[in-house]
Design a protein that fits this description.
Helices cover about 45% and strands about 15% of the residues. The protein is an alpha/beta fold. A hairpin with a 2-residue loop joins strand 10 and strand 11. Helix 1 crosses helix 8 and helix 16 crosses helix 17. About 35% of the residues are buried. It binds one RNA strand through strand 9, strand 10, helix 4, strand 15 and helix 9.
RNA sequence: GGCUCUAUCGUCUAUCGGCUAGGACACAUCCUUCUCAAGGAUGGAAGGCGGGUUCGACUCCCGCUAGAGUCACCA
């Protein structure tokens, strides 16, 4: 049996973390079993469905690399549902029901994009399913056997009219026609399952396997929603989270491989994923851990790939700086890659941050050149810096200026005179900062010329 | 409220009756170090409560408690 899973978002809001995680589990399971996942937009609610959300969801899935070759829209399948509706009506498994009162519904859902008060303009005739009022027992891959009495459901409504099927009906027909073998969805789907099984039995569809996965929760342990902050996938993309890192983290929310392994490539995830390892209880979303995982992925990335990404995040304030050059950026990359968790930090380093001094003469007060401990006088410090210049100039022209050669040239002198007295002013001269990478790394990034001129500047300041 | 589900460090989790309860994130301290970051080491930190079953329960059963979800002519 070929595995077919489905991801059926309703385009009533942007792709959020919870849905992305549900999609991921469907994707991983299908890929793992050599099957496929289909994407189905459940847009039968014309008032709430928006094209822009559909695009957001589609792009989000693309970004995460979960492209689906088969994409359906329920709004385009009205005739299909109609066919099944007519069949049910003919077999008297469903019937038209005249409704006397118009029901009014007030949305209380925080997540809803709607204005919160909606009045449904209700037609007087609807289609109801004849409910045999039995106890439905189904097996859930995560939770085992679940039994729910459908008596109080009554003869529930399956369509507003012959051409306006409701969610449950459309879902069951689609899952049947698209031959879905596994329904992997959020645990709130548990309550939907009995009535969907009732519809299945009425139309003569086989029962797929059910797998209800726990929620992704907010800090307060309630289902993750807008009030918890950044919940849409796009926000994480903007932040500079890597798609594979995001997938990696999402997979670990509610699933684990049974080993202590935490960093996975997409391929490893697919290979090791199994539904039986899914957790029963909800998992709180932690941005901290996501950042850490992103960092681990960043570490494993090649410098060339990192450079491509970096270029997208370098702000204008930096590229318009007098000493800006791509070469210098390239030399900065190894250190930068070690320091950041998310790509957005690169932009944040722009204004007066740790990137601006790389591409412009540092501005600082002379006092900063004085080491905190063992304050030596300015004359001694400027002598040290002069010597440093001298030593760097003497580096054999056949050798390039890099952190190793500079360190080699200066180390003995610094050791002899006190590393703090030599290295601190040297580092401040190059960075203008109290905190920065070490002076050897800085001189490699800046290059010989800029290094020497910054040292010279510092000497003038000390003598001034 | 009815119904359904869940319950191990602050968080993500391991344990499928033998536990000195393991790992990761975060946190703290120390080391390394001119500063920062990184790295290394160490540490604090958990089985909701009460009954059973058992030689032995975090693990199995029951009750309670707590939390979540769900009860539409939304999906």
């Amino acid at each position: 049996m070929k595995i077919v899973t489905r991801f059926p978002p309703s385009p009533t809001g942007p792709l959020h973390i919870g849905s992305a995680r549900t999609a991921l589990f469907n994707y991983l399971f299908a890929q793992n079993g050599g099957g496929k996942m289909i994407l189905r937009f459940e847009d039968t609610d014309k008032t709430r469905s928006k094209k822009e959300f559909e695009e957001d969801i589609f792009e989000g899935l693309n970004w995460l690399g979960m492209n689906c070759s088969e994409v359906f829209h329920q709004s385009e399948r009205i005739l299909v549902y109609r066919k099944y509706l007519e069949k049910l009506l003919a077999e008297e498994k469903a019937y038209y029901s005249d409704e006397s009162k118009v029901t009014e519904f007030k949305s209380e859902n925080d997540d809803s994009e709607d204005p919160s008060e909606t009045l449904i303009d209700a037609p007087l005739r609807v289609i109801r399913l004849k409910n045999l009022k039995k106890v439905i027992i189904f097996n859930d891959i995560v939770r085992g056997e679940i039994s729910i009495d459908t008596t109080e459901l009554g003869d529930f409504i399956i369509a507003r009219s012959i051409e306006e099927p409701l969610y449950h009906f459309a879902v069951v027909v689609d899952d049947f026609e698209m031959e879905a073998t596994h329904i992997i969805r959020g645990e709130d789907g548990i309550y939907n399952t009995p009535r969907q099984i009732l519809i299945q039995e009425a139309i003569g569809a086989p029962r797929p396997s059910y797998c209800h996965i726990p929620f992704v929760l907010g800090e307060d342990k309630s289902k993750l929603s807008k009030r918890h902050g950044a919940v849409s996938v796009n926000e994480y993309k903007m932040m500079g989270i890597l798609p594979d890192a995001f997938l990696n983290y999402l997979a670990l929310l509610g699933w684990n491989p049974g080993t202590t392994k935490e960093i996975f490539t997409r391929e490893e995830l697919i290979k090791e994923f199994s539904l039986s390892k899914i957790q029963k209880s909800g998992a709180v979303f932690s941005i901290e851990k996501l950042r850490w995982i992103n960092r681990e992925h960043l570490k494993k990335m090649s410098l060339a790939d990192f450079k491509k990404l970096t270029l997208n995040y370098i702000p204008k304030e930096i590229t318009s700086l007098p000493e800006w050059s791509e070469d210098r950026l390239t030399r900065l990359l190894p250190d930068l890659k070690e320091r950041i968790y998310v790509l957005k930090e690169i932009s944040d380093l722009g204004n007066g941050g740790d990137l601006s001094y790389i591409f412009d003469k540092p501005q600082y007060k002379t006092e900063l050149l004085l080491p905190k401990k063992n304050k030596s006088n300015k004359n001694i410090l400027s002598t040290h810096l002069e010597k440093v210049i001298n030593l760097i100039e003497k580096i054999d022209a056949s050798k390039t200026i890099n952190k190793d050669t500079v360190k080699e040239a200066i180390w003995d002198y610094a050791n002899e005179k006190g590393r703090g007295d030599v290295l601190w002013p040297m580092r401040v001269a190059l960075s203008g900062k109290e905190k920065s990478p070490d002076p050897f790394t800085l001189s490699e990034i800046l290059g010989k010329e800029a290094t020497l001129s910054r040292l010279q500047n510092a000497i003038s300041l000390l003598k001034g």
